[in-house]
Amino acid sequence: MSRFLSVVSVQNARDTLTFLARKTADKSVLLGDSLGLILRKDILSDCDIPGFNRSSVDGYAVCASDTVGAGESIPIMLTLIGRVGMGEEPSDPITPGTCMYIPTGGFLPPGADAVAMIEYCEEIGEEVLISKPMAVGENIVFKGEDFSTTNPALKAGTKISSRDMGVLAACGAQEVIVASPPRVAIISTGNEIIAVHETPKAGQIRDVNTYLCTGFIAECGGTPIVIGTIPDEREALETAIHDAVQKADIVLISGGSSKGERDMCADIIAARGEVLIHGIALSPGKPTIIGKIDGKPIIGLPGHPASAYIVLIALVRDLLYAMTGQIRSPVKLSGTLSSSVPSAKGREDYIRIIHDGDIITPVFGKSGLTNTLVMSDGFLCIPADIEGYEKNTRIFAEPWSSE
Questions:
Q1: pLDDT tens digits for 173-199?
Q2: What per-residue confidence (pLDDT) applies to 401?
Q3: Residues 313-333, buried b or exposed e (16+ Cβ, 10 A)?
Q4: Alpha helix (H) ranges present in 71-208?
């Protein structure tokens, strides 16, 4: 067992998990059921949108060259030859010296290459005075400019939002191919762990990590499967891990990852599969275990909730994205540090922070204190090759959630 707690880099741990990641199956869902799921294929519109050149304002369809030199003091005068009705395709063309009234969304008449906004026009009988010069293409949405049949409207890997659902509807996508959500089994271990509804006695703590992990997995688009709270008994833990491997694509085991006589997780994983990593240059989260059973990733999280959450953020999230193909575009918080932040070179430090305007304030707290998660807005990752940051250094941090 000497290989246990042989510390590897965070990047090594990420690479190991990415290697273990198995893409989940494709599935077809109705558009109305697609919210929050991950697209597996690019989406192209079934037709050009819009299907015709149309006006983006109420005004008058014109030849832009007719409006050169127009101004409030010297407007140009054009002959009004008709009006475009909504949903109607005009048959008469615009010729030099003429114009036609057109509503927002109206079909642009042949010959017109600009639309003068009604605010700059005055209709007098069969003549229209225009007091502003128009550029070619001004106030026009061209055919296929919104979505086309050749360029993807949405890329594979997109997590479908309410906005994306609108795009899918516009493209005629009644059904979409998405990634099946990864199933993640959650096991909480420890004789000291009690149910949430119970009052802790001396030496007891409520089961925080089951709910912390359940919520995190759901936020990341996975399907949490709660196996339960397991005492520090080898047979019970072996049974729970076996059950979890049968039911899920990933297994998270909270607790039992420190180097101690009662910690059996690594031993059980090694007996049933393989321990790949036991110890990561990550603070908090150093005693994390990464293994596999039947080719499935088994991750032993630290027991302290704040430490466990950092491991979820630093490693488990990327594993879920690798399994679904989700494209991640991290949101960054920018600001200057209100105080210096020390860090030991050789490990990746995750410091909780408060972001207020242009100021980023570190939140220092012991790993066992859950309150630092709700007191903070996000985290600052200090790379392993940097010995911290000085006060007033401009840095980039990341919010807890970038949704």
A1: 999 999 999 999 999 998 888 888 999
A2: 78
A3: bbbbbbbbbbbbbbeeeeeeb
A4: 162-170
